[in-house]
Design a protein that fits this description.
Layout lengths: L1 H14 L1 E4 L5 H16 L4 E2 L17 E4 L7 H21 L3 E11 L5 E4 L9 E8 L12 E5 L8 E5 L6 E5 L4 E4 L6 E10 L1
Antiparallel strand pairs: 1-9, 2-3, 3-4, 4-11, 5-10, 6-9, 6-11, 7-8, 7-10
The structure holds N-oxalylglycine and manganese (II) ion.
N-oxalylglycine binds next to strand 10 and strand 11.
Amino acid sequence: MTVAFETIIDGVLNDGYGIADNFITQSEVTALADQLHQRRDSGKFKAAGIGNEHVSVENAVRGDEILWLDEATTTPVEIAFLSRINEFVAYVNQTCYLGLRDFEFHYALYSPGTFYKRHLDRFRSDSRRKLSIVCYLNTNWQEADGGQLALYLPGATGDQEQQIIISPVGGRLVCFESGLLEHEVLPATHERLSVTGWLKTA
Ligand code: OGA
Ligand code: MN
């Protein structure tokens, strides 16, 4: 796993974003997707909002439904995922001194026709979010399913920004600095699943 951790962090430091395929196994992808569906079927998901002081639901901005993972309700597959994240946090703290202390993760479900317009993840009033992490849970994702992640990398002085398109294939993890990198989720034509979270300072 440390190889994946190194790949992710090297990517963040050198390119502005890091990717690791098979960060979780295909059986973990299926188990987490099943768990997500089970929790959604029991009515636990809520339309995601924007902002952190006055949260409002704006479907023209983002159309996903989310459920926060909380320690009280985690099942073995969620615990396995979060403990891998814990190891990643320890690795990052040893190698980059970001002073990460905490993390928060939610499931996200995009129904066909939904998207999340270009944005930054860090709230104006709360700068504790240092790294954004998205881990996809889509088995057999196809190009026609849409829902790609678009990253907007600022160009060097005078250069145009660069758009990077990432397919949300199951098991893939993407990481970038929450306060720096603008990004968007392109419209999905097929249900799109992920676990998304933030590694935070104290
Ligand atoms: C987010 C987000 C990206 C993705 O939830 O803030 O930008 O690919 N997600 O799901
Ligand atoms: Mn985001």
